[in-house]
Amino acid sequence: MSDTPLPLDSSSDPNPEPTPSPEPMAPEVSSPRPRPWNWRPKVRWFAAEYLIVVLGVLTAVGINTWWADRDARTRERLILEDLREDFAFNKSEIQHVRDLSDRLLIQYNQLATISADDLAGMSPDSIYTYVESTFSSDTFDPVTGSLDALIASGDLGLIQDRVLRERLTSFMEALRDSEEEKQAVIDIVIQMIKEMSRLGGPWGPPRTPFPVKPDDLIRLRDDAAYMTGARLLRWGAWYYAELELEEVEVAIDSVLVSLEANLDT
Q1: Could you tell me the pTM of the whole model?
Q2: Contact (Cβ atoms closer than 8 angstroms) between residue 261 and residue 170
Q3: Which residue pairs, CB below 8 angstroms and at least 24 apart, start in 259-263?
Q4: Please, what is the angle between helix 124-135 and helix 40-111, to 10°?
Q5: Rounded Cα distance, 33 and 30, in Å
Q6: Are the beta carbons of 160 and 118 closer than 8 angstroms?
Q7: Quick check: helix, strand or coil at residue 223?
Q8: Looking at residue 34, what is its pLDDT?
């Protein structure tokens, strides 16, 4: 056997460097667990904020509503006061029409019994009152400015009292129903003035350009056609004042009652 040593493996390092010792591993540090999210405070905060916003909106709406209602009630009261003034005037006007109709009717009836001598000795003012009874009359011209403006503006709904609104409507209907008879009276008055011109007129009271004289009145009274027309006028004026305007006056009274009740509250 040969004593020749075996060759070393080339991969073997005759002077191997010592293998470094592995560094000691740092102890493993556990990561902190995330804290759970507490949603309750957030919800409470959101609820509080929402409540504040809602209350603010509701308060603003409430104030605006209160102010608008207050303004509407102020306007309503002013409207009611204007209506009361107009309807009180209308009631007095109806009474004026009636009073004049009664006076002219009495004077017309007296005219037939007065002698020519008595007429000749009358004052010019007295003579004219008898002439007036043959051709004159008055009709009801209501003051409806406040009511017309209320309807035209669309503010009729401002009146809270439903009964009052209905009575205002009834007044307008009664007024329309009386218009036909009113126009009939006006037509007769116009016709009588034309008839008077046929007999030399028309004449007026003293201190006018054409004052009436006793002879003028006698001429009118002696004309059968003229006196027939005067009689028709007196009848028509009485019918209009006493019957047609009665429904209008009833409607006015009912409106005034409701107005007083609303204004007293």
Answers
A1: 0.71
A2: no
A3: 259/80, 259/83, 259/84, 259/87, 259/164, 260/84, 261/161, 262/80, 262/161, 262/164, 263/77, 263/80, 263/81, 263/84
A4: 110
A5: 9
A6: no
A7: coil
A8: 61
